[in-house]
């Protein structure tokens, strides 16, 4: 889609980090000052699309629309294609209907579906109806697959070849589709029922002697089902280091292709989601500076509230032990330290197992293995910290308090690591997002259970 | 490198998730039982390399070596190339010297360097000396770049073309390097000083009329410096949706190429690192089930200890207020709730900003913007939670305690979000890993400062 040709090297636009920074900064400053539109227009039109996207990602939605309207026609399309779907959705509201219809028709079918998901139903319907019939069919095909499935993110614009074709015939087929296919570097091979029987790279086609049948140079295909989870399919494409992965239906008939750049985009947003949830927030779905403060608040307030409500359990547990606290107020001093350590141990385990699940290194049937491993890890950590804590607190607060703290560390860490390690797997079993489910449950459970352990040990050791 | 051809479709090996699961499970069970080696050999030799890697990722290092030795020769190389460098390193210790030398010579130069980093210096030196001279030079070139730079991860095996070549000449050049180049789908265009002047895709070369000079169909190049940070370069490659990104030296001379599959691998391990550190642990660098329990303990104990030592600050703060606690023991009940909420608010902000930094959405010069945003976000969250907390605790524990808790929420959240948002940027400024630096600092500082705020407000409101 990049139609721009280069008039020779220009020193101004070497991709040297400093220069790029300086230029994007200049645009931002020009937007801050009273706008000199003609000058700003000249400046932004001279920039590569990637740089413009970087600037747009940092602006508020009002300013983003202003700057976007200054772009040249081809540049505008190229920039639009590189923007996050959420930002595309924002822009659609701010542009003329005609411009939107033209942009929409120029998008690839898979990108179009992503944008549709961001738009109000009414706008989406109007845009779909405005498409040429063939494009509308391609788009409708993708829209038929469930949310979060790879069918939604694949491209239906592939070049397929047949096993009985010669390499020369296959190359001619490829040459005929240089303009419209999503990729021409990896070709699915199908039989006359459209069943996937192999995969062949352009490199292998070019390398093969002219008369060789495709069947002799093709590879055994890796494939995913259109209804498979998009993240798992993308991870598969990445793990196998493929430039493109064929997508098939239940009868193994080819329906589309997942290219590595789309796989990358899927993985990047999945990783952003996981990180946000490990940190106890909802994913932002747009660049940080482009998100209004109210969006940031909304992405965090629910989790914060859930966690705070869960934490009231600790208030209740402490109330039960209020008499004990009044007797030995020293016990209160260690509450944040112990609670914190329990939470940290649980989070370490949960994060490790959540990541292992995402990477496919661990599957739900490994529950027993994970439980046993995490118990051993937690116990080891508890013993290491407990001995140290016993020595230090014993010296300062006496042997009894030292013993209480030391023993609490041992049991707390073993409990927290086991719970933290097992939660993400249980979440997966009940089909919840491991990162969502684990965090509040672990915080609430480990904190409350930790206090019970602490005061239980304290009462036993101190005899109160 | 995949030489395997396919003898036709085999129903046994459709990539249907269930079948794949069943087969890998069968291999695992065969390893668990008394081994019937010939049968196991037949089974694993019939599997695609990707499936074998999945099984190997789940075995202990001893069993991994046993299974690996059963593989066929070509299969073994293919599998070895797909393994994590750490697991490759483990295997090297368990295999015959001759086998290792052969594997090592067959690796791509960039993969070779990754493996070298995993090996003891003595073994690394011996392997390097065993290489053919040309391969040794290529490898030594990559080894000359700093750790974590993209120069270490790029491939020096590119096909470059000249702007004055015709498209037909360029295609002939490409055809001559089908066997040895890392990619033939994206070609850097260089002048006679080897200075990068453009980039051209195989698709555009094939599309151009026969006599067209390359200079007319090439694009303005995006490029990275060999000394640039590997993660940033990989993110750039992904953001621009490029199949390959040229790598240049300080004089803009071409030295290598970064392909998208290598970029993906870099990003995946960077994201794993970030997630581990957000969860308060060191990255594992090997699949979860393949890591011995002692490795898991080691990856967590240092952070747990650092965080626990930091948390002793809370013990000291509480000691200062021990007299206040003895007067109003009710205050102790809310300590875990308040500490927890402060920590959660700080973590939310830190995680969001850390991710924004990794994605390039925020740069260090945005410090002021981030500070102001996070203060507003924190204040809003604090007011929302504070009002609620005032209402609930006021009802149960009386107006005064309600006021203390409500006001503490407001100031605590504002403080925690600001600190949490700013820390990752400060970490980047002092060139520390934002994820590493933020976590312990925020926990320690926010917990201790939160307690000071809490008791300060309590003393003022309750007049003690």
UniProtKB/TrEMBL annotation, chains A, B:
Location of the protein in the cell: Cell membrane; Membrane
Transmembrane segments: 301-321, 377-397, 404-429, 441-462
Boundaries of every CBS domain copy: 154-217
Membrane topology value: Multi-pass membrane protein
Pfam family, one: MgtE
Record key words, sorted: CBS domain, Cell membrane, Magnesium, Membrane, Metal-binding, Transmembrane, Transmembrane helix, Transport
CDD domains registered for this protein in UniProt: CBS_pair_Mg_transporter
Major site of localization recorded for this protein: membrane
InterPro entries: CBS_dom (IPR000644), CBS_dom_sf (IPR046342), Mg_transptr_MgtE_intracell_dom (IPR006668), MgtE_N_sf (IPR038076), MgtE_transporter (IPR006669), SLC41_membr_dom (IPR006667), SLC41_membr_dom_sf (IPR036739)
GO molecular function, one term: magnesium ion transmembrane transporter activity
Domain of life: Bacteria
Keyword Iron appears in the UniProt entry: no
Family: Belongs to the SLC41A transporter family.
Function according to Swiss-Prot or TrEMBL: Acts as a magnesium transporter.
Assembly and oligomerization: Homodimer.
PANTHER family, per database record: MAGNESIUM TRANSPORTER MGTE
Protein name: Magnesium transporter MgtE
Organism (species): Mycolicibacterium chitae
Lineage: Bacteria, Bacillati, Actinomycetota, Actinomycetes, Mycobacteriales
